[in-house]
């Protein structure tokens, strides 16, 4: 069997050693030895030992950026929600490391600081995308900040629930539910594809087809 990529081996080694002997007692040399690489190889991939348990954030940010850039003004919200799902899948696909890292982050201030910095990078990426999407519209900066914060908060709330459960369920449904609130709040920002307006109407089940059509016609004729 081929060996896992070096970054993955370093992450697994760091998480295991921090768990076994404590963060402060673990050295870079310990992590390198457990991963089967040299000290110099470790530093080709990471600047410090806390970086080792967050190995793929740069690549993940690149994937998110690519998904956002592939969107148009009319599909911006779809792109944002797709990007959030990419982030969640990143954690779920490597559940064992994610769960062990979660326990460690709660215990080690240096790891919490590193995670906070990572979250800020995601939020900045979303904020810059939304800001570019809104252009010079009124309060674009404020609205971009609010939407980016909402997107990240929705993701983090779902992720934390999944982690606290020990990864015992599929969090994709709860994420869709949480993103529903974000979409409902910011859907009005999405630019329509054309000037046509969509009329949405609700009627009692007892309403006859004739009554429904008459109500719709009256609404359209009134310009309401």
What are the defining features of this structure?
mainly alpha, 224 residues
Concise structural overview:
The chain is 69% helix and 0% strand. It has 224 residues and is mainly alpha-helical.
Percent of sequence in beta strands:
under 5%
Return residue spans where pLDDT drops below 50 for at least 5 consecutive residues: none
For the report, how would you describe the main beta sheet? none
Assembly type? single chain
DSSP E strands, number: 0
Give the rounded overall mean pLDDT: 86
Instruction: Briefly note the structural class of the backbone.
Output: mainly alpha
What is the N-to-C order of secondary-structure elements (H for helix, E for strand)? HHHHHHHHHH
Q: Compute the CA-based radius of gyration.
A: 23 Å
Quote the distance from N terminus to C terminus: 67 Å
Number of helices: 10
How would you describe this protein?
This protein is mainly alpha-helical. Helices cover 69% and strands 0% of the residues. It is built from ten helices and no strands. Helix 8 (140-164) packs antiparallel against helix 9 (172-186). It is elongated and about 75 Å long. The mean pLDDT is 86.
Which SSEs are present, and which pair or pack?
Layout: H1 6-21, H2 28-35, H3 39-45, H4 57-69, H5 76-93, H6 95-107, H7 109-134, H8 140-164, H9 172-186, H10 209-222
Helix pairs in contact: 1-2, 1-6, 4-5, 4-7, 5-8, 5-9, 6-7, 7-8, 8-9
């Amino acid at each position: 069997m081929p060996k896992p990529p070096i970054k993955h081996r370093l992450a697994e080694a760091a998480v295991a050693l921090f768990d076994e002997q404590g963060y402060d007692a673990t050295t870079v040399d310990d992590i390198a030895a457990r991963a089967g690489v040299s000290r110099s190889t470790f530093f080709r991939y990471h600047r410090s030992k806390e970086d080792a348990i967050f190995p793929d954030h740069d690549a993940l940010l690149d994937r998110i950026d690519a998904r956002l850039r592939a969107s148009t003004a009319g599909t911006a919200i779809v792109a944002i929600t797709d990007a959030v799902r990419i982030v969640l899948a990143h954690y779920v696909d490597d559940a064992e490391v994610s769960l062990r890292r979660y326990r460690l982050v709660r215990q080690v201030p240096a790891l919490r600081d590193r995670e906070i910095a990572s979250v800020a990078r995601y939020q900045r990426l979303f904020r810059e995308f939304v800001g570019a999407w809104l252009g010079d519209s009124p309060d674009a900066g404020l609205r971009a900040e609010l939407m980016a914060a909402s997107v990240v908060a929705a993701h983090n709330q779902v992720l934390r629930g999944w982690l606290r459960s020990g990864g015992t369920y599929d969090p994709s449904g709860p994420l869709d539910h949480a993103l529903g609130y974000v979409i409902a709040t910011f859907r009005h920002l999405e630019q329509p594809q054309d000037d046509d307006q969509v009329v949405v109407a609700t009627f009692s089940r007892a309403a006859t087809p004739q009554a429904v059509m008459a109500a719709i016609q009256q609404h359209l004729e009134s310009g309401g």
